[in-house]
C-alpha cells in the first residue's frame, strides 16, 4: 500500500479496508488511532485536516505501523500507551496492557468505600503485581487522601509505574517497590489489591497471538492451575491488612470458588459472591479481615 499523496481521509479508509481484510477486530478504530498517532493528531485534528495530503515520510511511518498491526501487534503496544479508568498509562515490554475488565476491581473497591463513607479517609493501599501501576493509580485518582505502594517482581515494570505516577500527578502519594509479592513490606494496609498472573501454564499457548506474543509471560503465568499467586497473596493479605481491611483480587474464568476458598483458609471473610465484569464473567473476589 502506498499512501503518499493520499488525503488523511482517503488514507484512513484505505487502512481500515486493509485491516478488515486482515481480520483485525476493530478496523475503523485502529485505523483512526494509528493515523492519529503517526500524525500526532486527535480525533478533532484528524477531522479538521481530513483533506491534507500525506508526505512520503508520513506514509512510510504509517505503512510500518500497519504492517505491525497486521502481524498481530496490539494497537496499545504500537502506541506505547493505553487508557484505563479514563487515565493514560505508558506501557513498556515489562508491563501488561491494562484491560477494561480490571476496571471491575476499581469499581468493587470504590463501591465498598462509598458504602462505608470512607472515600475521604487517609487509607493505605498495597497493589501486588502493579505492572503499569494501573490499579493503584486509578484508585489514588479517586481517593484524594489515600497513599499506596505498588510492588512488582520486574524492576522494569516498577520504573514504568513510577513514570506513570509522575505523569498523572500522583507521585507524591505512590511508592513503587521491586520485590517478590510484598516480601519487602510491613503493614498494616487498609486495602490490598492485586491482579496477579492467573492463566494456567498449559493454556498460555492457546491465548490469542496479541496476548501470548506481546504481554510479558511473567504477567500471565499462574502456574499449573492458575492459582499459584493467590496461594501467596491470600495469607499475605491477612498478615498485612489492618482490622476491617479489604482485599480485592481479579480472577480468571472459573477461579471464583478456588480463590474464595484460599481467602477463607487464610482467615479472611468472603462476604459476597465474586463481582462480575461487563461481560457477566465473575471477575473480582473481595474479602475482609474481621
Ligand atoms: C496480570 S499482570 C497485572 C498488571 C497490572 N496490575 C494490571 O492490572 O494491569 C501481573 C503482574 O504481576 C507481576 N508479578 C508476577 N509475579 C510476581 C511476584 N512473584 N511478585 C510480584 N509481582 C509479580 C508481573 O510482573 C505483572 O506485572
TrEMBL record:
Pfam families: MTS, PrmC_N. GO terms for biological process: methylation. Substrate binds at residues 195-198. The keyword Transcription does not apply. S-adenosyl-L-methionine binds at residues 129-133, 152, 195. Keywords: Methyltransferase, S-adenosyl-L-methionine, Transferase. Residues 10-80 form the Release factor glutamine methyltransferase N-terminal domain. It comes from the Bacteria. One of its GO terms (molecular function) is peptide chain release factor N(5)-glutamine methyltransferase activity. It is an enzyme of class 2 (transferase). Its EC number is 2.1.1.297. It catalyses: L-glutaminyl-[peptide chain release factor] + S-adenosyl-L-methionine = N(5)-methyl-L-glutaminyl-[peptide chain release factor] + S-adenosyl-L-homocysteine + H(+). Residues 123-199 form the Methyltransferase small domain. HAMAP family: RF_methyltr_PrmC. Methylates the class 1 translation termination release factors RF1/PrfA and RF2/PrfB on the glutamine residue of the universally conserved GGQ motif. Belongs to the protein N5-glutamine methyltransferase family. PrmC subfamily. This is Release factor glutamine methyltransferase. The lineage of its organism: Bacteria, Pseudomonadati, Pseudomonadota, Alphaproteobacteria, Hyphomicrobiales.
Amino acid at each position: 500500500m502506498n499512501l503518499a499523496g493520499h488525503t488523511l481521509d482517503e488514507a484512513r479508509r484505505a487502512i481500515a479496508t486493509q485491516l478488515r481484510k486482515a481480520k483485525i477486530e476493530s478496523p475503523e478504530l485502529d485505523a483512526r488511532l494509528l493515523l492519529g498517532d503517526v500524525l500526532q493528531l486527535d480525533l478533532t485534528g484528524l477531522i479538521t485536516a481530513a483533506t491534507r495530503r500525506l508526505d512520503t515520510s508520513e506514509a512510510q511511518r504509517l505503512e510500518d505501523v500497519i504492517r505491525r498491526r497486521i502481524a498481530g501487534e496490539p494497537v496499545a503496544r504500537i502506541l506505547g500507551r493505553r487508557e484505563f479508568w479514563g487515565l493514560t498509562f505508558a506501557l513498556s515490554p515489562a508491563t501488561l496492557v491494562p484491560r477494561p475488565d480490571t476496571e471491575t476491581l476499581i469499581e468493587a473497591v470504590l463501591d465498598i468505600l462509598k458504602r462505608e463513607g470512607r472515600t475521604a479517609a487517609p487509607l493505605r493501599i498495597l497493589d501486588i503485581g502493579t505492572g503499569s501501576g494501573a490499579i493503584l493509580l486509578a484508585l489514588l485518582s479517586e481517593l484524594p487522601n489515600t497513599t499506596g505502594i505498588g510492588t512488582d517482581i520486574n524492576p522494569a515494570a516498577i520504573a514504568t509505574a513510577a513514570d506513570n505516577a509522575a505523569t498523572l500527578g500522583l507521585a507524591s502519594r505512590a511508592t513503587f517497590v521491586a520485590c517478590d509479592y510484598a516480601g519487602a513490606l510491613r503493614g498494616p494496609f487498609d486495602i490490598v489489591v492485586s491482579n496477579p498472573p492467573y492463566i494456567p501454564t498449559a493454556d498460555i499457548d492457546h491465548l490469542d497471538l496479541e496476548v501470548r506474543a506481546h504481554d510479558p509471560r511473567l504477567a500471565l503465568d499462574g502456574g499449573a492451575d492458575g492459582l499459584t499467586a493467590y496461594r501467596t497473596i491470600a495469607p499475605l493479605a491477612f498478615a498485612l491488612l489492618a482490622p476491617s481491611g479489604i482485599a480485592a483480587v481479579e480472577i480468571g474464568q472459573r477461579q471464583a470458588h478456588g480463590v474464595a476458598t484460599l481467602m477463607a483458609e487464610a482467615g479472611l471473610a468472603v462476604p459476597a459472591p465474586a463481582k462480575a465484569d461487563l461481560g457477566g464473567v465473575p471477575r473480582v473476589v473481595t474479602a475482609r479481615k474481621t
